[in-house]
Amino acid sequence: AAQKYLLRAFAQLEQQHPSRVKKMSLSQVAGASFEGLAAQEPLLSEPCSEDMGNGTNGSSYRGCQARTIHDHICKDWSEAWTDTASLDEYGLGEHAFCRNPMGGKDTIW
User: Fold this and answer.
1) How does pLDDT run across 38-89, given as a tens digit for each residue?
2) CA-CA distance, 109 to 74, in Å (whole number)?
3) Single pTM value for the model
4) Selected residue with higher pLDDT from 30 and 107
5) Do 65 and 100 meet the contact criterion of CB atoms below 8 Å apart?
6) Spatial separation of the C-alpha atoms in residues 99 and 105, rounded to whole Å
7) Burial class of residue 13 (count of CB atoms within 10 Å of its CB; 0-12, 13-18, 19+)
8) Rounded distance, CA 82 to CA 104, Å?
9) Which residues touch 109 (CB under 8 Å, ≥6 apart)?
10) Greatest pairwise CA separation for the chain in angstroms
């Protein structure tokens, strides 16, 4: 299961950000650090759109930005948002992509 997950995640990252993907030999991988990888590069279930939409201050943004403009890792919304009934309405859920659910901040966070 873990191997399938990693292969899917790699293929997805390679397709969306070819310049960020570096293929490594097994000996290089053995010495690499993967700490924090899941929080920085969430596995996507559907393609990303970086369109900010028509909402106030990016409130309708549904893209895949995982870091804020200040280079902080975005929240894991399934843990941070208490109103679970509105997760889909605001584009939140089992991911850590930046959002501005109600438009209360200047931009996505």
Assistant:
1) 444 455 555 677 888 888 888 888 888 888 888 888 888 878 777 777 777 8
2) 6
3) 0.54
4) 107
5) no
6) 10
7) middle
8) 17
9) 68, 74, 75, 98, 99, 100
10) 48
- Token pair of 26 as six digits: 């097994």
What is the rounded CA–CA span in Å between residue 10 and residue 44? 11
On whether the CB atoms of residues 67 and 76 are closer than 8 A, the answer is no
Distance between CA atoms of residues 9 and 97, nearest Å: 15
Residue 45 tokens read as 């279930």
pLDDT value for 31: 61
Closest residue by Cα to residue 63 from 75, 52, 74: 52
Instruction: State both tokens at 4.
Output: 């399938």
- Select from 99, 28, 20, 103 the least CA-distant residue to 66: 99
Q: What is the reported pLDDT for 86?
A: 75
> Residue 11 carries which DSSP code?
H
Identify whether the C-beta of residue 13 lies closer than 8 Å to the C-beta of residue 21: yes
